[in-house]
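#struct-pred

JT: dropping the chains for the assembly here, can someone run the whole complex?
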Amino acid sequence: MSREEALRVEDLKVYYMTEKGYVRAVDEVSFNLSKGESLAIVGESGSGKSTLGMTLIRALPKNASIVSGRAYIFGDEILSISLQDFRRKFSWRLISMVFQGAMNSLNPVLKVGDQVAEPLIYSGGLPKEEARRRATETIETVGLPREFYNRYPHELSGGMKQRIVIAMALVMNPQILILDEPTSALDVTIQAQIINLIKDLIDKLGLSVIFITHDLALASDIADRIMVMYGGQIMELGSTDRVLGEGPKHPYTEKLLSSIPRLRGEGMPDFIPGRPPDLSSPPPGCRFHPRCPYVFDRCMKEEPPLFNINSTHLVKCWLRGD
Amino acid sequence: MEEVIRLENVKKYYEVRRGFLGSQSLKALDGVSLNIKKKETLAVVGESGCGKSTLGRVSLRLLDATDGRVFFKGQDITMLSEKELRDKSFRKKMQIVFQDPYSSLNPFMRIGNIISEPLEIHGYAREETREAVLKALEDVKLVPPEDFLNRYPHELSGGQRQRVNIARALVLGPEYIVADEPVSMIDASSRAEILLLLKSIRDSREMGVMYITHDIATARYVSEKIAVMYMGEVAETGPSSSVLRNPIHPYTILLLNSVPEPNPANRRTRRLVIKGEPPSPINPPSGCKFHTRCPIATERCRTERPSLVEYAPGQLVACHRAEEVIKGSVTVA
Amino acid sequence: MSAGFRGGFRIYWSTWTGRAGLAFLILLTAVSIYTITVLPVAEISRQWNDPQHWVDYPKSSPPTWVNLFSEKKLLETTTLNFGNTQFSGSSKSTYLTLNYQADSYPSYISLSIEKLRYTGTPPVLVLSIVRPDGYSVEASRIIVPPPRPGENPPITRFEQAPERVLITSSDDLARNLAQLYEDRFDVIVSPIKVLQDGVQRYLMSTPKDGALTPLKGVYRFTLTAIQSSGETSIENGRILMGGEAYGLMGTDVIGRDLAVGLLLGFPISLFIGLITSIIVTGLGASLGLVSGYFGGKVDNVIQRLADFMNNIPLLPILIFLVFSFGAKLWVIILVFVAFGWPGLTILTRSIVLQLRESQFIESARAVGASSLRIVARHIFPHIAPFIIAQIIFFTPSFILLEAALSFLGLGDPSLPTWGQILELGFRSAAVYLGYWWWILPPGILIIITSLTFVMISLGLEPVINPRVRVRSRG
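RK: done, full complex below.
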């Protein structure tokens, strides 16, 4: 891993303030992302994966606060600077995000091309003609014909809208792209098309990608490394070859993997009984212990650290260290 | 085994207004025939808009077919009125489990009332009702059942709500259940649990199940038969094992190819995908409806509509080039 | 939606409009209940339009409390009661005294007696007045009719209606006063001038430097029964001195006590507002429910009818109907209902259309629930909060509409509503004459009542529409 570091996150904690108290949506999360690398953040609903993405582009809702932690984009800290500074220097041009369900929040009365061009005009300060030209190019980059500039959202299918949303995120040539469940509302055949597109874009543009998904199978399609989150914490982080190739080292990852229905092979898919923890009062010890099949005394009392199985594979489980 | 439900050449057309002049018909279902036996599950697989949900509702008489017939245990129920369906106990014997565990439960009603309502409608006595409700809650593993009676839907997790849905569907002792995407809105780690539950209940209660899903991978675990639908028609149907292991229709083959499997080698390859998107159902393609996206379409596919032909035991395929695919003289993927 | 009643109320109570609206509503309701239970409403509303009932009341007088704020004290209406009096034996007379300290004169002075009974010869009742300066003047005589043939003593007179003598327009008194002024003050004045200027001015003044100044002090009113034989008794004898100020709220041009009218206006306004609103909302929501749930031809008919009703102008129709059926309350309410329902029907329908597509409705159908059951158990609970909000939201519009109609002279004249009071005020040029007590209170009450319901519906809005809640918090 001698490649240039695109993003580093250190000890990030993001809490939501709610009527029930603090919800520890993201708790002690640290990781890095090299230039040109793609990292999948995998977890179920409520695991904190979307909050993590929104923190990195400074788009947290008002009741969320960054309790501690730092994040660096090419060496520059981005969480302590003012929002204006972040928007001027980082958003769109260095880091951008495709939000979950963004394809359904396209403005129905604007041409999709103009919506793609918007950040170029308002954030990039380009003249309209130039913005239009660049937006058209980006629309072609995501695999749509250039005439689509003049279409309206209702004239597009779900897959086409998803391409437009990706074009919006790419229009200012960012280095880092965060994709939050970009295919969750799409049919499996269209999902495959979008996944192929994302692969092409990574190759062609040299993007560093954070791919947020609940689906380990999809993660394996794109990610060089996989980071499994549960209850706001990293459970396992390692290269896809290790985590999926050699097999998961964390019980949660293992269970998540075996709950995926397969087309071939014997046996039923597995499931994890119980429900995810209430993050306003997380269980003591390991947050996964109430649902873990290998639980023992220590898990209930002490929170395991992220053990280094080797330099690139971290596992937060007492079975993997002492 | 006894046949529970049989559909014969069912069609469902919707009139769609186009401008000022007249209307066109949208063919949601265009001649579908199938049957489901006791203790058997048929998985109806297809992408959104293929007509699979409409099919489920027509089989329950929640929607009226434009043409064709619906038989429940040999009795033609196509033309029965709502009142007849209720009075002759057909409604009791046919139930549905919905996709969305959030919008399928009345938010103003307690769990106990949600489950007892069907019994109330069909005039059960109070003690009988209470017992049946507790039994249904136990059957779906919401235990202890007393804890759930007075809760409201919003106090439950998605998986628990889906169990309530199943309990409500079970409480009348149905012989046929339509499960419409019952796990698509549930966390991945809980899906198998619900599917297993449905399967074990099916076996213990000897029901016939129509399992509607977009996820062909789950279909093989719960179903004995599969029907793959494309634009209101059955493209391929047969025993789950043969359809999944030896798919013949190009659409089935490509659909199976689109399903992601967790494998680190994935990222070094590109998926083989079906090009484009399904055409508008208001103006469907002529001939075989799949020909616009089919990699092996010929002139004949563009003009002549293929009919379902049996190519392997129980396996029916609507494709002009099925023979060649089987022989291997042409490859789809 | 699922916040429940307690949660909903907490949200409601957190808005100041909600709190103020509820406080006002409680006040309005309390006054209405007081009015209905304590006052003889039926009798009052009958009296309201009977000018005879109000003859003794001063006309167009401000309320008495204006004296608290003004230098020049206005005379308050005063009643002197003889009560039930027996004229017998040696004491054939009775008297009352009045300490008169006002700077002005009563608007009139009258004597009333009821149920006079006598034996022997028919009596003559004489009222004489002794002024503070000691001069006495005969004010009036009541000659009691003799027995009719066949009538046996005791003879009863003035039983059906009280005998009322307006002594300030008595020719006798005018003549006697003219005589008094000539004899005692050397002032020559003709009886006709006394009548024209106002008998009471001469009765209660002394001339000073050629002008009349009020004579303050104790006046003594003596009532004597002149009878050669026999006895006489009267009931409820009284002398009324019409003041220039009356009661809590003053009077109108006929002399009606505005306090009574305004008080009666509370229950009537609330009744019209709420009843109309409830009927309109009930009808509108039911039609919307039917229209949205059943669809098809019924839906078409209801919606076209709603469009039609929504687009005909209300006022001309109302005028026409009032002319053909008379201005009756039920006609007015009927018209309000007929024109009020369409908006709500269209709204309810769109809500129901959306609900009908939801899975729990389909689920109810799948278990064999009848349409009636689905509507009652599954759809209605969802729209109930909305319907309640609509009732409250509609109420002020109907209160205002009724007031506006009354103001145009199209109200039901048999009931004293605030609009009616306002209307008569304007018709009597109260604004130009400065009769503020006649115009302001009903106007203010209409505004307060409307505002009450507006504030309640503002308070309810965040309860029913959670999006507003978020905005108002954020």
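JT: nice. Residues 162 and 250 of chain A are 33 Å apart (CA to CA). Residues 5-94+174-320 of chain A form a domain with the Rossmann fold fold (CATH 3.40.50.300).
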